Amino acid sequence: MDAIKKPLIMARQFISNHVSNGDHVVDATAGNGWDTLLLAQLVGNGGKVFAFDIQKEALTSTRELLEVKGLLHRVQLIIDGHEHMNSYLDGSISAAMFNLGYLPGGVHSIITRPETTIKALKAALQKLREGGLVTIVIYRGHDGGRAEESALLAYASRLKQQKFTVLHYDIINQGNMPPCLMVIEKLTE
User: Fold this and answer.
1) Burial of 136 (0-12, 13-18, 19+ CB in 10 A)
2) In this predicted model, what pLDDT tens digit does every residue of 48-96 receive, in sequence order?
3) Does pLDDT of 1 surpass 50?
4) Residue spans per domain, the chain
5) Mean pLDDT along residues 124-149
6) How confident is the model at residue 2 (pLDDT cuts 50, 70, 90)?
7) Helix, strand or coil for residue 170?
8) Residues 6 or more apart in contact with residue 71 via CB below 8 angstroms
9) How many Å apart are CA 182 and CA 184, to the nearest integer?
10) Which CATH superfamily is domain 7-186 in?
11) Is the pLDDT score of 116 beyond 50?
């Protein structure tokens, strides 16, 4: 499966090709910090990453990773639900990353939920500058994962095509419900 990229790898490629030095971006689900680290590398010293998670252990892991890499100064770690991101963002953002489901290595009953994820996505799209991107890796193989995917697909399919382009990238012939990717671009007017 070398030619076909996994959804998480594709999300990171989209973001890497899009985010530049000085940008302000959001990691809506900090988890163990790998997406936060990527974003911190991309925004440079002039940029800022706002990383959200509701679990203290997720932000602790993220902090430790960023400290080892010397990039903590580029990131604001926020222990709050991603649905509250507008309370923390003053200006526009150039990108947001969502990596849904549960914290790898954490408690599997603590998961992202359709109602808060949709609210967070709306907030991200509201703050997203023209030409900005949102990537959403949707993990469906856990309780609640399919419902979250359905809610996101329904919401994204109703976005006005004059304002947004929505890509849905899915691997359809594998068992165990592999993740899929949604990418939303805010068009320039």
Assistant:
1) buried
2) 999 999 999 999 999 999 999 999 999 999 999 999 999 999 999 999 9
3) no
4) 7-186
5) 93
6) low
7) coil
8) 37, 40, 41
9) 7
10) Vaccinia Virus protein VP39 (3.40.50.150)
11) yes
Cα–Cα dist 43/48, whole Å: 6
Contact 40, 16 (CB under 8 A): no
Tell me the pTM: 0.94
Closest among 73, 67, 82 to 26, alpha carbons compared = 82
DSSP reduced 3-state for 71: coil
Residue 180 β-bridge partners? 138
By the 10 Å C-beta count (0-12 exposed, 13-18 middle, 19+ buried), 49 is classed as buried
Least confident piece of the model among 72-76, 92-96, 129-133, 143-147: 143-147
**186 token code pair:** 């805010």
List the one residue out of 144, 80, 86, 156 whose CA is nearest residue 112: 144
What does the longest C-alpha to C-alpha distance in the chain come to?
43
Its sign, for the CA torsion 107, 108, 114, 118, is positive
Side chain identity, residue 60 = T
Per residue in 28-38, pLDDT (tens digit) is: 999 999 999 99
**Pairing, β 180-186 against β 128-138:** antiparallel
**Cβ–Cβ under 8 Å, residues 25 and 93:** yes
Strand-pairing partners, residue 99, are: 137
